[in-house]
Amino acid sequence: MEKSEDDELERLKREKMKEIMGKKQGSEFPESPLRITDSNFQNIVDEYPIIVVDFWAEWCSACKPMSPLIERMAEKYSGKIVFGKLNIDKNPKITNRFQITSIPTLLFLKNGSAIDKVIGTISPKQLEQKLKKYLD
């Protein structure tokens, strides 16, 4: 297949995924992590079927290597999974709601419900294995 055919196939897959998941056809999946806050959390959860939230803080040295991984995965899984970053120091309501006591923590939500959590750093391979499990 040529490059343009591959691009068209990917676009059609994304549209079909949105349709299957019952989301608005015009709703775009971001290619980079969303900035999630206490005030926009519910709107984001309501808009996208599968979300991975990275709970982090500026002072957290273990959180730093997770940031580029989350960026790469957001781009790679655009149209299928939305990634977000939530600073725990600035957003205590959501942090407390999900009982986040250690960072980094990745929280996986599907249709608004927490379905999995990873505490600590994770390799790209481990993260991809988890993501693929939720796409089936």
From TrEMBL:
Organism: candidate division MSBL1 archaeon SCGC-AAA259J03
Family annotation (SUPFAM superfamilies): Thioredoxin-like
Domain Thioredoxin stretches: 23-136
InterPro entries, A to Z: Thioredoxin, Thioredoxin-like_sf, Thioredoxin_domain
Official protein name in the record: Thioredoxin domain-containing protein
UniProtKB keywords: Disulfide bond, Electron transport, Redox-active center, Transport
Gene3D superfamilies on file: Glutaredoxin (3.40.30.10)
GO cellular component: cytoplasm
GO molecular-function term, one example from the UniProt record: protein-disulfide reductase activity
